[in-house]
Amino acid sequence: MSRHQYDLIQCMKQTGPSTGLVCQQCDGRCPICDSYVKSTTRVRICGECSFGHLVKKCIICGNGFEEGVPSYYCLECVTLEKDREGCPRIINVGSSRSDMMFSKKKAEKSS
């Protein structure tokens, strides 16, 4: 989860056998601390986040992709055992993104 966006919420359910996939833009980034160094352990996600329309979406940013890349935790998060807390998928869009959507709808109605 991004350290500079405190309004994002992670799934945090018990992880399953499925591997978390990310888009090319988020490739190499730790889903917990946004670090780009020393990727070690593969990210596992829960059963609910690994099927349906969520399969083709990045676990960090939520953008769709054609071909996903496996995500990895950094060495520091593995050492601190943050990789065992649960599913790291971001389940909400955040206030800045939702404000942008509401302002677009408002502009469409006024025109």
From TrEMBL:
GO biological process terms on file: mRNA splicing, via spliceosome
Top-rank taxon: Eukaryota
One family name in Pfam for this protein: PHF5
Family: Belongs to the PHF5 family.
Protein name per the record: Pre-mRNA-splicing factor Rds3p
Organism whose genome encodes this protein: [Candida] railenensis
